[in-house]
Every structure is written in structure tokens, then in C-alpha cells.
Amino acid sequence: TMTAQALPYISFLGFLFGSTLVASRFSVGQFQPTTYIGLRLTMAGLGHVAFYALVSRRYRWPTDRRLWLHASILGVLGTAVPMTSIVTALQYLSSGLAAIFITTSPAITVLLAHFFLPDEALNRRKAFGVALALSGTIVLASSGESGLADVGKANPVGYILMLIAMTAGGAAAVYIRKYLSDYSSFDVASIRMFVAALVVMPLSALTIGFDLHSVTPGGYVALGYAALVGTFAGLLLAVYNVKRFGATAAAMTGYIVPIFAGLGGVLLLDEQITAVMLVGVVLIVGGIMIINRNKN
Hints:
Blueprint: H1 2-27, H2 33-54, H3 65-89, H4 95-103, H5 105-116, H6 124-143, H7 156-180, H8 185-207, H9 217-245, H10 247-251, H11 253-269, H12 275-292
Helix pairs in contact: 1-4, 1-9, 1-11, 2-3, 2-8, 2-9, 3-7, 3-8, 4-11, 5-6, 5-7, 6-12
């Protein structure tokens, strides 16, 4: 079946995104979050520019003004805000726990779509799925879980930042459906990345400065991995998965990211996977599966 064919691609993308969270969690100890995101977006943005330059026959640098306007808004709302929020949250939460929160993204998208997209109204099944998924995040937040061995109760700032990231990400998904569904997803992604880098890098330099004194060679390797493998290559694969296997199959990536992020965090960063995290995952994934069932 199509889903069986899609599984290796979906699993590999889950690995790319999950391992990128682990790399980001490692880097957060060395870079200021906005400096890290600015550099990561700049490197990924340059990857996009290089891609257009190398395969110019098939892909031409986009010049449509409407595309630039909407994709630029998306770059701020859907890339700069959530990426900065997630990486800043990794100062307070483990990569595994952050990945579990990210899994709720489709539930927030469905909720926002109900209000902003006339043809995406909530039915009973979707409403139950949303409620179940969000109950998982409430269980995690109310328990004060951090996923970190040396932290008793998580700083609530971590949860608030993840909520901002998920809401911005959900709003971005709705915005794409409303204004950008007719455009090439790669063109949209390229402008998003480019504009997000143009916004985050100067703002970070102005507000925080540009101090790389604490960064070790390992920190630079983690940055390069997150930018070129997780952000740029991951995005190309995500676009390919949606085009080849459809949105529902591609959405399954969200179930796999916490597995790789959780295991990577335990093996490489001495993070924890607790019983509360497992309960949260079951509730969230259960809710998302109900939302996605028979969607087509």
C-alpha cells in the first residue's frame, strides 16, 4: 500500500527532525538561542539559493510579488517565531518533551482552521481528537515535567514558549491553505527561510550582540547538522513526501519525531523519558490519529 511505501521516507524524515531537536538542545548550552536560529536559518537559506543556482533548469528563483508578500509573512509567522520559541524553550525542556509538544501541532491547526477556513469546520470526531490531544499537553504541563535529569519542576516559560510555537505553526498551516496553496511548496519554503533569516539575524545582532566565545567545535558541527541536514534537507524531503504520498501520510512524521528525539536525548544528552511523558504521548498521538482518520 501507499502508506507502506511511504514508511521509510516518513521514518527518515522523523529521524532528521528528531535528531535536529537533539542537536539544538546541545547547541542551546553554547549559543544564544536567537544567534543560533539566525545562523541556522542563514545557512539553510543559502542552501536554498545554491539549489536554485545548481538546478536552474527546473527551478527558477521566484519573482511573483504576491508570492513574496505572503511567503514573507509566513517566514516571520511560520518560521522565525516558532523556531526561536522552540529553541529558547529547549533551555527549560528536554528535546524529547519538546518533540511531544510539537506533535500536538495538527490539533491546533485543525482548531484554527475551524475559525478561519470555511470548508474546514470541526465535526464531532475532529473535536474529540483535538480535546484528547490537548488533554495530553495539559497532563504534561500540570505535572511540571521537564524531561531533564537535574530539574525537579520545569520552568513554566518553557511551556509558554512551546504554546507560542505551536500556535504560530498552526496559524502558518492555515495561512498556507488560504493564500499559498497554488504555489510551488519549494518556492514558498525558500522565501520563508530567506525572510526569516533576514529578520532573525539582524534583530539578534542588535538586541543580544554576536558572541560565539562559548561555542566548541561540537557546537559548530551541531549547528551545521541542524541547518543543512535538519532544516534544508529535511524540508526538501518533507515537500517530496507530501507530493508523492499525500498530506495524511506525510503527517505521520509527527508520530515518529518524539521517538528519535526522546531516544537521542537519553543516549546523547542524559535526558529522561518518564511515565508522565509516555501518558502524554499516548493521549496526544491518539488524538491526532482520530483527527487524521478518514480525512481524505
